[in-house]
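Bump. Still looking for Cytidylate kinase structure tokens.
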Amino acid sequence: MENELIINIGRQLGSGGRAVAELLAKRFGCQFYDKEILNIAAKESGFSEKFFEQNDEQKGFFKSLCNFRLPMMGDNDFYKNNFSQESLYQLQSEAILEAAEKSPRCVFVGRTADYILREKKNMINIFITAPFDKRVENICQRTKCTKEKAQKILEKGDEIRSKYYNYYTGKEWGHATSYDLCIDSHLLGIENTVCYIAELIQKKFNL
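Sorry for the wait, here they are.
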């Protein structure tokens, strides 16, 4: 597709990755997908969006790799069967593929979109990181919690995202070989990080 542009943003919790993704979406006129993809998956499957949120990449992925029972919205016998975490991931993957087909220009945040959309041509994969102490500060400001609590949130969040990504992609979350660019958002700040990435995108795709 001539006008196609897909930007995938992986990020450490508290790094400002979502803010970077939103600004890039505005800059390039892209449809933005973060938790929105869960809504699409829920609508397509008929399952509760709340359940998708509870079993998202950020929330206890490994607690249910075994079969579990979904809270359903209908009475169809199909929905009463046990449903695996892999099946849930498949539904989300289909939603990401569908979103990419409907929107020639889009930005995806996390959820292994870089792997799911790996056959796409005009795509770039970015990972946003930041020093641990700065991420602690960001979480404290966002949630009004103590530093100790923020540290635990980050450690658990990074662990879950890493295991989720590594399990489904066969790649290493946050490792330079898994992305086109890894960048510390604290070096330049959010706005200048966006400018830096935007310049790379413009040169890569001759925009």
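Residues 58-82 have pLDDT under 50 and may be disordered.

Edit: fixed formatting.
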